[in-house]
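Thread: "does anyone have the structure for this chain?"

Original post by V.I.:
We have the sequence but no experimental structure in hand. Need at least a predicted one for the grant figures.
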Amino acid sequence: MIGFEKDLIEETLAKQIEQIKSCRISSDKGRENIKISEKNSELILRFLEECLARGLSKNRVMFYLCRLRKLLQMVRKNFDEMNKDDVKNLVKEIEFSNYKQWTKQCYKITIKKFFQFIRGYEWDSKQYPPEVSWIKVSSKNNNRLPEEILNFEEVQKMVENASNLRDKALIYVLYESGARISEIMGLKIKHVSFDKDGAVIIVNGKTGSRRIRLVLSAPKLASWIENHPNKSNRESYVWVNLEKDNGNPLCYRRVSNILKEVAEKAGIKKPVNPHAFRHARATHLSKHLPDAVMKSYFGWTQSSRMASVYYHLSGADTDSAILRMYGKNQEEGEKVITPRVCPRCGHENSPESEFCSKCGLPLGTEYVEIKREKEMIEEISKLREELEKIKITEKKLLGLITPKIVEELIERKIQELLKSVK
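Reply from O.Q.:
Generated one for you, tokens below.
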């Protein structure tokens, strides 16, 4: 195969290709190896070679490979021996599965492209063999309902229900960065830096490298890196396993499972997957950032129409126009989420934090009230001490006054009064 650079996606791709070569692939749950035919192994390897030779992105090659691995577990014969009825049965099995609609579309796209290749049709043509030409693939549906989009309170709830520091930081970073899951999984410790304003991560995506500023997630990210099993190795991936394979990078499937488990624990009923956080962040930021900044932040090309999709989903402009028509103004706007600053040491903490991660004191109003009460008690104590000093001084002064001094003071006062009369 064409050589692979050692980044996370290519490592995963290389491992899966080695499995295809060995004619044994791991099942979805990873508990057993499934034997595949040499012919199907050969067909898939040839297809992947073609993808790589044509310069398809690593993400796109992974897109095809992941679905072909699943199809290998569903078919009962070699792909090149399948007729139209066999393909119909395969598509029917996909349609009756519990997959989301877009996931079903992904399988159909893969089947059409794969059969186009193994039947010898032109790669870039719109022509497909009769076995798959009947398959209808709809365009990607971006019309997710606004009520299906995660809000910040739900993200916070997931952070609170995550069982360890890694998962808390991962959820926060996925949301605040709005980055693609492949970009987040490819993060190494050397790609993260901290300053007085929070953190900066450098991700590498479809439009090249870009810099993303983090504020809300910075405290959790800093805490996780401080507790990272390989924190002294700047080449280590940020998101690694904690159980078996300790220190090895997480795979997409593991991240997806973590998010689903935490969402279920938090009682979130909305669709939760790695992309849901990018979707939510883009919708929320579209209310605050102009088109050009959105494209730069999310790594879209300048010709991309994605920003307009999220402006539409946020509904901010439409709401404002309608409310103005009825004489209502929305001056308050959306609630601004900020870090919780410790009233004692000034350290910035994540918005959901109850205690300061630096000094350990409570961050709620309870501490502020206790602090004020303590200061008042101290002031009262100081005043009492001053009063005691004044009383002592008064007694000492009175003790120094003799009858002779009193007579002299009276005589002096009489003389002053006589002079004023004259």
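V.I.: this helps a lot. The mean pLDDT is 80.
O.Q.: and Residues 74 and 90 are 7 Å apart (CA to CA).
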